Amino acid sequence: MAKATSKPVTEKKVAKKAAPKAKSLTIDAASEAILDKLRSLNIEHQLQSDLEWCLGSYRYDGNPVGLIDAINRALTVLKAEQAKKTKGVTAAFITGITKAIA
């Protein structure tokens, strides 16, 4: 009679996968997205200039105060464009930007 070798039964630990998080924009990425959207719509040229300047300033010194102010001004413009049903200005876009500055 052959001797049966018994290996200890080990339970495999199943790694639980975390639910994929929605990608949240950083302030830097949000301002770039706003700038691209304003350029594609060809509106608010002064606001575009302000966003560019504030973005450069933020990248240099890391102080987001001016950039957040410019983003808030852009949000009011984008919400008005959304109310006009302008193509490309979606609720998801505005929500993503709002989360980035929160």
What does this entry look like structurally?
Helices cover 61% and strands 0% of the residues. It has four helices and no strands. It starts with 26 loop residues before the first helix and ends with a helix.
Low-confidence stretches: 14-22
Secondary structure class reads mainly alpha
Number of strands: 0
Oligomeric nature of the chains: single chain
Q: What is the mean predicted local confidence, pLDDT?
A: 84
Rg over C-alpha atoms, rounded to the nearest angstrom: 24 Å
Count of alpha and pi helical runs: 4
Q: How would the global form be characterised? A: elongated
Q: What series of H and E elements makes up the topology?
A: HHHH
Provide a quick synopsis of the model.
With 102 residues, the chain is mostly helical. Helix content is 61%, strand content 0%. The relative contact order is 0.17.
Key features?
single chain; 102 residues; mainly alpha; 4 helices; 61% helix; elongated
Give the SSE map.
Elements: H1 27-41, H2 45-61, H3 65-83, H4 91-101
Helix pairs in contact: 1-2, 1-3, 1-4, 2-3, 3-4
